[in-house]
Amino acid sequence: MAREEEQSGNSKTVSSSSSSSAAAAKVKPARSQGNKQRAEVSDTGESQGDIPMEKIREKRERVGLLKGGEGDLNYDSDSNDETYEAPLLQAAATAKKSWFGRSKKGAVVTRGKMYKKTGVSKCAICIGVTGGVVLLAAVIAGGGVMVLGRKPVVKSEGWYPTPPGGQLSTWQSSYQKAHTLVSKLSLPAKVNLTTGTGWSQGFCVGNTAPAYTLDGSEVLFPGLCLQDGPLGLRFTDNATAWPAGITVGATWNRELMRERGRLHGKEARGKGVNVILGPAMGPLGRMPAGGRNWEGFGADPWLQGVAAAETIIGIQSEGVIATAKHYIFNEQEHFRQANEWSLAQALSANVDDRTLHELYLWPFAESVKAGVGSIMCSYQQSNNTYSCGNSKLLNGILKDELGFQGFVQSDWLAERNGVGAVLSGLDMTMPGDGVKWADGISLLGPELTKAVLNTTVPLERLNDMVTRIVAAYFQVNQDKHFGIDKNPPNFSSWTNEKIGLIHYGSGEGVKGVVNKFVQVQEDHGDVARKIAAEAAVLVKNEDGILPLKRGDVWKGKKVGIYGEDAGPGKGPNFCKDRGCNQGTLASGWGSGAVEFPYLVTPLAALTAAFNSTPAEYSETSPELTSILTNTQFDDISTSAVSQDLCLVFINSDAGEGFIENLGVKGDRNDLFAQKSGDKLVLTVADKCKNTVVVIHSVGPIVVEKWVDHKNVKAIIYAHLPGQESGNALVDVLFGDVNPSGKMPYTVGKKLEDYGPGAKVLYYPNGIIPQQDFSEGLYVDYRWFDKQDISPRYEFGFGLSYTTFTLHNPQIRLPTPLSSLSPLPAPPPPLLPAPTYPTEIPPTSEALFPENFPPRIKRYIYPYITDATKIIKAPYSSYPKDYTTKRPRSQAGGGEGGNPALYEDVIAVVSVEVENAGAVKGKEVVQLYVGMPGGVVDPLGNKVDFPVRVLRGFEKVDVDVVGGGKGSGRRKVEFRLRRRDLSYWCVVRQNWVLPVEREGGFTVWVGSSSRRLPVVLKF
User: Fewer CB within 10 Å, N- or C-terminus of the chain?
Assistant: First the structure.
């Protein structure tokens, strides 16, 4: 989510009162529309307020699609149509991957239009007439090349209509309650639930207005508060700044993943937040320099899926709706959003069907299986259709195949048209404003009201949108925790003052208590500290330099602490949205960051640790020296030569693309330590014989310049540890916590090792930048394995202060493979979906009520001002095949897909873990699967597989032999589901278990993706 608007002052760290959520809905300010109602016209229909129907028909026939009504606010004419079908997300005629195609002989499809083949693409011609000359000059000046002659592209397949919610038993009760409530709602009340009130028009980053009875006398459903984000509550006070997602992933600890989610949800409920905008599982981490990788849990779909599911279960157990984001393919910040990079259109991520299912969709499927209430669609285009208007991804994949029962919300301003997005499966637009921040002009709101009245949007689609939102509310029991005015937001995202504007975005109006400064942290810092400590990955430890000892060993000794990353800098909240790399790094930047209630720096914690020895050693603490800069090399060198131990702190920062710092525009420019970090390490190591390096980073840092230096004795990747950073690090350094973190990504020796698909597209290769995911399934360790490239530190790697060994591996097949069907059982029957009266409401119902209070400036209302502008003629020009009844996906039938994929246990693997060392510790036992050889699809094409893929892990605490009852060994068991052992067949459009094939399955068990002493076959 992007937040580019200024907040008039400092970053927010306060809370708010809710004195007027009712007023917000009742006093819903209308935007000025002049003498005409704006007409919504898109590729899927029009709200025929101003444009004669015959003109619209003529335009459709001329260009093959519908464009904007009175302006450019409602439709993205170049890239958000689905006029031509692409083979990418449907069954292909062959198994060959391709995202380029022809529509007919002699013509090519380019962004939904047909052009004669020429030597220069249509994009090249567009440059001169759309201001592209300026962009081209900028690219050339920056050393880039604009690729104008690339092959034409085809678009994602259209998939209509939206499957209705309420057809699965797991949500049956919630949908029954929702049906009862929605049946009472008027048309404007329904629209209110689907449209945000506008940027900063409520206390939260996203707000919907309450749903009133038609006469305004009673609130039937409360307004909702949606708040960032994945690692805490943005723009609030007295809340925890948790370790980032990548840090949580590095723990490989399911219990901590769930507990962090639960406490995050508890804090949200305490602040009056209905919907947390997290967790993030997109980006997956295709590009190691991707700006927002740190918000997710690691560069593997199975790890991401487990962490996301545990987080969601934790959040929603506290009565707060979780949001799985960003759906989907949002793998880089450059060009991810229209108009953010001097380009009118966002980048298109072009991905084939199998890669979608086995890689990027996997964690979203696990999130749906976990019951997630909301999913946020991403900014960029997917196969040349904007993700929030991509009917194949929203209707076909998410709501049909995965059986998603909650609601789809847009990322903030990610919706690029109105009617088209609604018909494609979008249920809620955020923050309500359509194309520009805080202008009060929505693509839904009154436009949706008009579209329903003239049947451009079928009434049943609106009813489904609203029912999904209300059902999610009931599914997590918000009627008990929130209810009508029971627990409104008690903080303001926009000011730190106690008293402020109720509708900050209006710049005027009623004032009241907006911040109550409610303390919700309790003892959550203890859990944050535990997560950060368990996430620390020890990758080098020579001569037993760690753990550090306490006591008289330090008598007369000197310890040097070097690097800006060790200290406080100008304070943790110095830059808005943490958008600068200064002081110790504990979070990335952007909407996923939060305000720190405090931040324990490494320097502060180390100082306390070295000076907190027992009384008998009070005079034996070492002499501490710190130089908290990276570039005073002469001073650092002079200091380091006299130290007995040197601790060097380096980092690398990144974040969301709307912020630039140190030349980093969201995505990192490389994989090296920032701010001369490598030179800092070498300066210290050249003089200090015992050097320990601590790395805080948003992702992999290449360490080849100094990793083999004879004086670099230990290295710790501490990731982004949150508010308890220093304390958690000290726990590991001194052995109070035995390090058990494992790498959630691969650390290569150079960027090129990750493959061509791992490189960020820094310069546009067309008016609509095209990014082809041509590496397919081979991301991170899968690429390293396929190419037999030796990484510096492999995925899943991490050392301990003890030693673990594996014993007695066993495998059991509950059912012989020969008895199993390659395909899962047919999906179970669906329940009937809720139904409502189909009669279109009278136009008078949609008008501003008489005696309506003064309208709030730039606030988005659902009402219209002129009923005479609504054309009542039945609308019939819906997208192609809109009324065609589609067969159910055989891969569907339950939350997350066909229940058999999760319920069928194909194999059970067990192994015993022994602690062969001298201290108690935790080990992450990892299981990887290799698929059989010789697999072919029904067309006879060979199916390629990665060498191995992660399919299980368990973290176990193992005492040393003789340490107590049952100590020394722990048994670990893995249950391999049908889903874990199947591949996605693009021909069958289903998951296929390759039984009775050459070589069978191979199972590896060990401590990382390349340290796998146990090998089993079946």
Answer: C
Find the DSSP H helices in 555-646: 602-610, 633-640
The length of the chain in residues reads 1018
Helix axes 459-475, 446-453, angle to 10 degrees: 130
pLDDT > 50? residue 410: yes
Ramachandran assignment for 83, one of left (phi > 0), alpha (psi -120 to 50 degrees), beta (any other): alpha
pLDDT in tens, 538-563: 999 999 999 999 888 898 999 999 99
Q: How many CB atoms lie within 10 A of CB 93?
A: 8
Q: Do 445 and 432 meet the contact criterion of CB atoms below 8 Å apart?
A: yes
Cα dihedral 520, 523, 527, 529 sign: positive
Report H helices in 142-205: 172-182, 187-194
What would the two tokens of residue 436 be? 């520009």
Mean pLDDT confidence for 432-444: 94
3-state SS of 267-335 is HHHHHCCCEECCCECCCCCCCCCCCCHHHCCCCCHHHHHHHHHHHHHHHHCCCCEEEEEEECCCCCCCC
Three-state DSSP at 683 gives helix
Spell out the residues 6+ positions from residue 35 whose beta carbon is closer than 8 angstroms to its own: none
Residue 133, exposed/middle/buried by CB under 10 A (0-12, 13-18, 19+)?
Answer: exposed
User: Are the C-beta atoms of residues 674 and 653 closer than 8 Å to each other?
Assistant: yes
Question: What is the spatial distance between Cα 101 and Cα 157, in angstroms, rounded to a whole number?
Answer: 12
Rounded CA-CA distance 709/606 in Å is 24
Backbone angles phi, psi at 297, to 5 degrees: -110, 0
Q: What sign has the CA pseudo-torsion 767, 768, 769, 771?
A: negative
| Nearby residues of 54 by Cβ (< 8 Å), 6 or more positions away | none
Judge contact between 856 and 509, C-beta under 8 A: yes
Angle (CA) 702 707 711, round 5°: 150
Angle between helices 172-182 and 459-475 (to 10 degrees): 120
Alpha-carbon dihedral of residues 673, 679, 680, 683, nearest 10 degrees?
160
Mean of per-residue pLDDT scores for the chain = 86
Model confidence over 355-400: pLDDT tens digits? 999 999 999 999 999 999 999 999 999 999 999 999 999 999 999 9
Of 1003, 946, 933, residue with least CA distance to 973? 1003
Q: How far is CA 283 from CA 165, 245, 291, 743, in A?
A: 27, 11, 9, 17
| β-strand pairing of 921-930 with 949-958 | antiparallel
Kindly list the catalytic residues: 411
Q: Calculate the alpha carbon distances from 912 to 809, 814, 840, 906, 917 in Å.
A: 7, 20, 65, 21, 15
Of 684, 870, 892, 795, which is closest to residue 37 (Cα–Cα)?
A: 870
Phi, psi dihedrals of residue 559, rounded to the nearest 5°: -125, 130
Measured distance CA(771)–CA(350) in Å, rounded: 6
CA 366 to chain centre: 14
d(CA 96, CA 121): 25
- Of the candidates 555, 650, 949, the residue with the CA atom closest to the CA atom of residue 778: 949
Residue 548 is which amino acid?
L
Q: In b/e form, how buried is each residue of 562-584, taking b as 16+ CB within 10 angstroms? A: bbbbbbbbeebbebbbbbbbbbb
Report the C-alpha gap between 95 and 85 in whole angstroms: 17
Q: What is the distance between the alpha carbons of residues 539 and 190, in angstroms, rounded to a whole number?
A: 55
> 804 in helix, strand or coil?
strand
Residue by residue, what is the 3-state secondary structure of 604-629? Answer: HHHHHHHCCCCHHHCCCCCEEEEECC
Q: Is 107 helix (H, G, I), strand (E, B) or coil?
A: strand
Return the pLDDT at 750. 97
Measured CA to CA, the distance from residue 213 to residue 138 in angstroms comes to: 55
